[in-house]
Each structure stands twice: as structure tokens, then as C-alpha cells.
Amino acid sequence: MAPSLGAYPSGGKARNARAGVPRLALSIALLAAAIGLPQQGIAQKVRVTNLSDVNFGLISNLQADARRSQNVCLFSNSTGGRYSITATGSGSGSSFALNDGSNSLPYEVEWSDQSGQTGGTSLAPAVSATGRVSAASQQACNSGPATSASLIVVLRASSLTQAREGNYSGSLTLLVAAE
Amino acid sequence: MNKGFRIAVVASLLASMAVAEPALASTQGSFGSTSTGSVTINASVPGRVRISGLSDVTFSNVDPSIPASNAQNVCVWSNTSTRGYTITATGSGSANAFTLSSGALTPVPYTVEWAPSSGQTSGASLTAGSVLSGQTSSATNSDCSAGPSASASLVVSMNSSTLQGMTAGVTYNGTLTLVVAPE
Fold it and tell me: What does R_g of chain B's alpha carbons equal in angstroms?
């Protein structure tokens, strides 16, 4: 299902560029943009939503990897739904590390272009992962696929078995750009 | 006179911390040329300890006129903020006594000492079934495969009067169990 035309913000640019175009042609142009077809004058835009906090809770088994995955809505109106994603952590130098005030606990981040995945491509901190493709057909996944990507956070046993006792937290920021 | 006994070990896996309430702070991206969202990640690591690097203790053909003692280096790891731990030793004798036995012969006692550093030939005397607290580990790796290769000393001894009371040519056996807990 095509997204609501009204959901596109700042579409004035496209509309202004097409002032005077017959209504049918304009509708076709906007519809094409909505489904991700190349459209001169339509800005490339992306959106990431449906993100949830990641709570590992009390990790009783430190000798096994702890893994949490979630389904995310990632929309891109670029040709083929292409986008890039860059993840940065709140650790030193944007590293993927949690902190308890005194000690750090490293983690890993994986990303998949499909929802429902428990593993994916490893992301390096602050390094853009290009060539990603979204299947979302609406910017907030209100129609079409409910989600289009998977975010996976992993605490390795090798880190857990060396970690000090404590309550660790940190933030992970995802920057998505159209390609 | 052959006397030997084995040491079995159980490391406790006690959780010793409360779990903090996770902060709820995820943010959703807006629709634009780029879009940024974020999540908060929370994890609680409980207090854990591990004891490893233990070896069986064998006193073989000892001279009963001289006290016998065996010291070994052990790895004890603790992840608490102070790297602290407690240790409790129990023997296989009656009421967890530190004794060796050989069939119908009268059990013979031995002593156990513990030091929270490696390379020691003496330490704090352990009482069967009683907790020795206030121990601190220098281990930085759970099995001492990195950092210090050992972090504690276990010393098992038998005095000469005990040895002189034992029957020659007979093997005495027993089990010593060490329980370590986070502190």
C-alpha cells in the first residue's frame, strides 16, 4: 500500500517544481516517489522507527553470549530502497561499550536488512555500512511490512566472564542516510 | 607408608546484586535526508567467582618423624568491585572433618590453610565448615589464563604425631571440598 501523500513532509519542493503539471501527471509522479522509483526533484529521504531499548536484565550465565534482537522499521525512498547505516556507541571514541560508572563492558552490534533475524552483518563503531536495502513501503511502516530490518546487540561471553559485577548501561545511536 | 587424598571443589555461583531499573529512552528517527534513532542498553552482571587450578594432594612414603606439608598455587577469581570472596572448606570425615580414612582404621586428621596470594607455604587456618571472609583475589581472568597465573595458596599439612600414629603400608584417602563465594 502506498503511503499517504500527506505523510511526506516538505513535499513542496517537488510540487513547486511541478507547478502547472496536470493533476494526473502529478499524482503519478508522487505515487512513483512513494514506492521508491527514481523521480527527479523528489528528495531522497529515510526514516528509522520502532526502536526499543535493549534490556538484558540480570545475566545469570556469563559463559554464554547474550543476544537481543528487535525488529525495526527502516524506510528509504531511494532507488531500490537503498540506504546506509552508521552506529555509534556511548563508549570512549564512540565505541560500543556499556559502563557502570567505573568499568566498561563491550558489546557488538549487528544489522540485517530483514526483520526477524537474530544475526546480521557486524557494524563497526562510527563506520558507515553501505548498500543496505529496505523493503518498507511506508515511512513509519504503518502499511506494508510492519518492520524491515533487525537490530542485534550481543554481549560476548568472553567479555561477560571478565566483567566486574555491576549495573551497566549505555546508548546506541543509529544514523541512517539514503543512498 | 602411603597416604593420599583428593580435593574436589565447588565454586558457588551466587548472585549478589540488585538489578537496576532500566532507563527507557529510545528515540525514533524523523523523516529526512538522514534519520537518527537511539536506544538505551542495560545489562546487569552478577557477582561471580571461580576456583580452578587445583591439584590432588598426595603424601607418599613420608617420614613420620617430620611434619608433611603440601602447598599448591590456585586460581581464585572474583568479579566483585573489591574482587573479594569468602572460602569454606569441608572434609570428608565425620561432620565434615578434615580427616583421612582407611577402612576400619581410625581416621587421621590433617590441617588446611589458605592464603589469598600465590607462592605461600602457610596461611590462615581453615576450620571445617566455617567461612573465611575478607579474601581478595588478584586474578584478572576467570581461569587465570591471562594476568596472574595463580592468585591463592592452598596448604595441606599433617603433623608428625599424626603420621606416627598411622599404619605403614596403608593408603588413607579423603576429599577436601572448597566453596568460594563472592564478597
Answer: 23
